Amino acid sequence: MAKKGSPFEEYDMLEQIGNGSFGSVHRAQHKIDNRIVAVKIMKRKFNSISECVSLREFKVLKQLSAHPNIVQLYDSYLSPNKEFYFVMEYINGGNMYQLIKCRRDAETEFARWEIRSIVYQILSGLAHVHKLGIFHRDMKPENILIDNTPSQDGQHSKNIVTVKIADFGLAREMKSRPPYTEYVSTRWYRAPEVLLRSNAYSFPVDLWAVGAMFAELITLRPLFPGQSEIDQVFRICELLGSPNPSEWREGVKLAAKIGFQFPKISPKPLISVLPNATPSMLDLLEHLMYYDPKLRLSAEAAMSHPFF
């Protein structure tokens, strides 16, 4: 339950570290124990505690019990001036987009064990989210935060970094009924069923996005950097080929419904765009990026793939 009051009574605001359509994020320090946290200030004004607790992001964060690969909510406040604040775990290492850009600028590829560690942790966090009946809907490198903090004994763990899934502003619960109509996910990581305006998608949209991020960790380049929704579909078809009714009947129906005709393109081998990938990498990617969402691996099943 949100508290009445302001986090400024307990925390000193240090600096703004992010700004989005829903709110701004600030680094802050607890006045007594010096703990560093992130404070998110929602842009929208709230009139009551009950209005705060009905906010989707807040409801989702409250349901997500502690997990090492999910950013944790510590506290929340509704101030007298109607501002709603989340006090959250502070992650010190930026995000996966910045990590990939840093490697690309340095022309230094990730080692296979680094990719294995990062992707496994993303799947682990996602499996936890899905088990609770929630799907994220905005999985992208900017929403995968990087924690460089050493363990308590001063040593880094076997992982290069700890990664944590963040920003549940677009998340939905499975018990909330379709249609799901509003904008979902950054275009480059958007699943084909969402691009074709399905309003009854589910957990597999998150796994498609994991596949796209997995490929990006291998090549340091986005897999499908579409310039528009139509261009996005064309880029997917250029690699995976055009779906036919026998492999994705629902997709062909969705395309017809919005007046879209798939180009007649044959699939390319994945290795043609991922020349450094191992056979087990390519196999996992293939199983995350089937056109038919029913055929994609679940997060939990993907964690048992031979690549890991």
TrEMBL record:
It is found in: Nucleus. InterPro entries: Kinase-like_dom_sf, MAPK, Prot_kinase_dom, Protein_kinase_ATP_BS, Ser/Thr_kinase_AS. ATP binds at K40. SMART domains: S_TKc (SM00220). GO terms for cellular component: nucleus. Its main location: nucleus. The keyword ATP-binding applies. One of its GO terms (molecular function) is ATP binding. Belongs to the protein kinase superfamily. This is Protein kinase domain-containing protein.
